[in-house]
# Entry
Amino acid sequence: MTTAIYFLILAVICFLYTFNLFLRGSKKQQIEAILGIIIVLSVIGSFFVLGWRLGLLALISPFIFVGVFRPVAETVAFKLLGYRTGVDDDSAFDLDKVIGSDGEGFVTLMEKIGQDDKAAMQRLKQLTKSPEINFVLSRHGISFTMFHEVLRELRASSLHDLAWEIVSSPAELDQLFEMKSAGKSGPDIWAHFRNFKR
# Structure
């Protein structure tokens, strides 16, 4: 009974953590940090409360719970907010820190952008190994350089949190190229992908 309750509580915390990833608001990062700490403490505590065998199960269970709850959390957030959101929300840099840091922050920012760009290139190269993605790129005459530029544009736009989801989905990538070819405006593209629930 204790074991079931313990894992039920851990599951609820993992759901709240996953749900928060799809929400928006000024307290999002603080809530994410607090829930993350609670999950870590719960896993550590499981070794003392449940024993080492169940503790090992508790160690991997947050990864399983987050994976299982992700589609549910995304759907609930979509219904609550009225538009689609993503979890890759790392493209916005804090320019206030850069401006007020006597140039040191600017150098750090440039280094982070460079590292981020290299990581993005590697991830994109992996995506192009997918036959479905390759087919979409070929159909629209998109080179790897152009594909990279599309990702950069998305990450710099108001769709930055959905950028990787869009370029990773053959259907959404095809829709993006179709809309661009048709001369659709930025707001039209934004509305399409924000209101499109997979």
Observations:
- The two ends are 38 Å apart (CA to CA).
- Residues 91-101 have pLDDT under 50 and may be disordered.
- DSSP finds ten helices and no strands in the chain.
